[in-house]
# Entry
Amino acid sequence: MSMNDVNVDPAELKKFSDLAHRWWDPNGAFRPLHELNPVRMGWIERLVTLSDCSVLDVGCGGGILSEAMSSKGARVTGIDLAGKSLQVARLHALESGAKVEYRAVPVEELAQERPAQFDLITCMEMLEHVPDPARTIAACAQLVRPGGSVLFSTINRNAKSFLLAIVGAEYVLGLLPRGTHEYARFLRPSELARGARASGMEVSDLTGVRYNPLTQRFFLHHDTDVNYFMACRRPS
Ligand code: SAH
# Structure
């Protein structure tokens, strides 16, 4: 695959590289991901058994989710294209003792290299940063073994998500650095589901995630208008 073919927006990667030193600061730029982590871990563990599960974490960043899954006994490979984030992830794993393998490889390339090799793929808070999410979804579908699951999380696209996820989170509450998200890249659940089905998967779970700014907590909710999680399954 030539570099021109890579499904990546260099401006998006730069945003994450510039903040990479803050990945593990619980009160830094990635605080929402730290707060979201127990909620998504609860959801993941309801759907799959992580012990001895081979997992690919796509767009792993500093490894917040990768390490959490590894601590539950999963054999985790984390991939990202922001080299600085991977350096931070590797250093943190050295300190924490987490046995995660980190690689800077495009998911589409890994799909050629290791098709149907993983029991579980997680691709969280990442699709809204890539130019062609359908290709990312298709690559995830190729990487998971028949009968395995692909778990996505992203942000819905509508007036409410614009107000809450961009105006509210970036400008009013300052939860995220300004410019973190681009409205046009948000993905409706119907669009994600269509991409999943076009790649031969079926949707097995959909849940919304809400944030309470007073308690500063995320929680699962049937409302998928803003943040949501979608589980897909590759038929056996
Ligand atoms: N999944 C992690 C990090 C989410 S932040 C978590 O939820 O904790 C989004 C991540 O996607 C960043 O680390 C960014 O570098 C990565 N990313 C953006 N575009 C990418 C691409 N085309 N390929 C791989 N990773 C990408």
Summary: The longest strand covers residues 144-155. Residues 50 and 69 are 7 Å apart (CA to CA). The helical segments are 10-18, 31-47, 64-71, 83-96, 107-113, 133-143, 159-172, 189-198.
